[in-house]
Each structure stands twice: as structure tokens, then as C-alpha cells.
Amino acid sequence: MELNFLAIVVAAIVPLLIGAIWYNPSVLGTAWMKASGMTEEKMKTGNIAVIFGVTLILSFMLAFTVNGMVIHQVAAQQLAFTNPDAESFQAFMAEFGNMHRNYGHGALHGAIGAFFFALPVLGINALFERKGWKYILINVGYWVVTLAIMGAILCGWK
User: Fold this and answer.
1) Per-state percent for the chain, helix, strand, coil, to nearest 5
2) Are 130 and 88 in contact (CB under 8 A)?
3) Using one digit for the tens of pLDDT, what is the confidence trace for 96-139?
4) Least CB-packed of 9, 47, 70, 72 within 10 Å?
5) Burial of 39 (0-12, 13-18, 19+ CB in 10 A)
């Protein structure tokens, strides 16, 4: 099973695109700023090129990870590498082929990943940072939508 590098590149851009919409002041940006304690003055600080560049690198890392999470055939292939009898992967593919390789299945697994990984991680951090539930829900909502779209792209784009 080969990686679809074009799908990974497109999926890696999704966090930036969804973030531009989600955190826009006309959508949830104003509520997020209030919940996080962010100010307009602080938003103007920092090197925006570095912020976006590092975000894109981290998004590529995330896209590679989500790829393995949403495509069952990738997990089956990884198991074949741990077993000298590589026929097990061939038998799996003969029986199941591209079963569940569609956009909806990828979106489902992306959203599940957000609920069972992003929510606990962000929730724990936010609780210790003394942020409220509004802050947690805005950020987790962003990751549910983002990972669902990334999962859909990666799983459905064959």
C-alpha cells in the first residue's frame, strides 16, 4: 500500500484553512479571544512567518499520523511487517480490499480521534491553565472539524 503524498499535502493545509475560518472574529474568534485572554495587541506580536511555517510542518506530521489512523489497510500492512509471513497482508487485502476506504469513514475516524485524543489533551491543559469550558469547546470543536476533514481527504482519496 503506497502513501498518497498529494492527499497528505492537501490534508496538511486543512488546519490552516479551517483555522482561518474558525478563529475569524466573525465566527468564533472573538469568543476564543475572550475565553483565552488573548488581546489584539498580543495578536500583533510574534513572527507570523515562523508561526505559519511551524504550523505547516506540524500539520504535515499530523497528516501522516491521521493517514494511519483512518485507513485500516495501513494498520494491516504494519502488522505484516512484524510478521515474517507477509502473506497475511495479502490475505487481508484479498478478503477486504479497499473496504471502508471512503470519505465518510475517514471523517468518522478523524472525529473519533479528536474526541478521544484532542479533547483529553486540550482539556487537561486548559484545566491546569484555569481556562473555562468555553475555551475547551471552541478549541476541541476546531479539532473535531479539522480532523474529520483531514480524515475524509486521506481515507477517501485513493
Assistant:
1) 80, 0, 20
2) no
3) 777 788 999 999 999 999 999 999 999 999 999 999 999 999 99
4) 47
5) exposed
